[in-house]
Amino acid sequence: MQIDKYQKAKYIFVIGIGGSDLASKAVWNAMTLHKTNVEKKLFFLESPDIREYEEITNFVKNEIINLEEVVFITISKSGQTAETLETFHKTFDILSEKFGSPISERVIIISSLGSTLWQLAEKNKFEKIPWPEGIGGRFSSFTTPHTTVLNVAGLDADAFVAGGKEMDIKCSEETEDNPAKHLAKNIYDNYEKGFDILDFFIFNSELEDLGKWCRQLIAESLGKENEEGERVGLTPTVSIGPVDMHSMLQLNLGGPKNRFTIFVKSFFEIKESINDRAYEEVSEAYKEAGLPFIKYEIEKINEREIGSFMAYMMNVTLELAKLFKVDPYGQPAVENYKKSLHNL
């Protein structure tokens, strides 16, 4: 793909759902959510409702001037996800009404060879990028479905991938120093004691979508029948500190002891802020309450550090799958739902 063709794009529409967009969405929001000097605007359209389509229509009509300002990326491994296909057609119609047939020159399709979406791209001569063979959606973070979005958005996709590779090397060691093996064993040992909720308690609001990416990774990879026919899995949740300390903390500290927590915090800010104090105090309160947790601290939120964290969690998930005795790659229940929706 010729990235230069899209360098002037200011408005990037990304159509996808679940593993097709959560990784790139997490990186984008982590890097831009609280910044005021962001030159580009990304629209992650997963399954918009009528109100959202009206907002998109008004934005396209009133805010976008030139065709060169637009890139329209649609991502689906199967190429037949019902929500994605509907969102593609409706958004394409909105853009076509503004720009006519030339909008086809600004469309990128990422899908499996021969899929419904791939055939649509061939028919309309859209730019096509093949989905990486043998890679499932939730394990695709470092591949073209997401690096394409990051590159077009002007982020450092190379640093993101490099951070992931560095962590993969650390997690490939067959020793007790392997951080993924260590955390997976910690989580699983506590799971056997009744701690079946895995909470990502995040103290940087721009990382909320990173927590949601973790939620899908854990839920879909581990929630299934194991080799012995038992239904197993962790229930992943996402909390944002200190906000959720004022809504969930009573339950967490005073309710059932069934929660393993991963506290996530970047300290690239003014020390001794209220957020820093809340982070330290809540982790101390968890310790006093006998609740298991670990801290994952990031020096600075950037593409490399986010890539490192994602690779860490993927490796932890694979190690947990071994302990749970499940295949981390399949998702039979989800596929049944997709077939049912597709047949409506």
From TrEMBL:
<keyword id="KW-0312">Gluconeogenesis</keyword>
<protein>
    <recommendedName>
        <fullName>Glucose-6-phosphate isomerase</fullName>
        <ecNumber>5.3.1.9</ecNumber>
    </recommendedName>
</protein>
<keyword id="KW-0324">Glycolysis</keyword>
<comment type="pathway">
    <text>Carbohydrate degradation; glycolysis; D-glyceraldehyde 3-phosphate and glycerone phosphate from D-glucose: step 2/4.</text>
</comment>
<dbReference type="GO" id="GO:0006094">
    <property type="term" value="P:gluconeogenesis"/>
</dbReference>
<dbReference type="GO" id="GO:0097367">
    <property type="term" value="F:carbohydrate derivative binding"/>
</dbReference>
<dbReference type="Pfam" id="PF00342">
    <property type="entry name" value="PGI"/>
</dbReference>
<dbReference type="GO" id="GO:0004347">
    <property type="term" value="F:glucose-6-phosphate isomerase activity"/>
</dbReference>
<comment type="similarity">
    <text>Belongs to the GPI family.</text>
</comment>
<dbReference type="GO" id="GO:0006096">
    <property type="term" value="P:glycolytic process"/>
</dbReference>
<keyword id="KW-0413">Isomerase</keyword>
<dbReference type="GO" id="GO:0005829">
    <property type="term" value="C:cytosol"/>
</dbReference>
<dbReference type="InterPro" id="IPR001672">
    <property type="entry name" value="G6P_Isomerase"/>
</dbReference>
<dbReference type="GO" id="GO:0048029">
    <property type="term" value="F:monosaccharide binding"/>
</dbReference>
<dbReference type="GO" id="GO:0051156">
    <property type="term" value="P:glucose 6-phosphate metabolic process"/>
</dbReference>
<dbReference type="InterPro" id="IPR046348">
    <property type="entry name" value="SIS_dom_sf"/>
</dbReference>
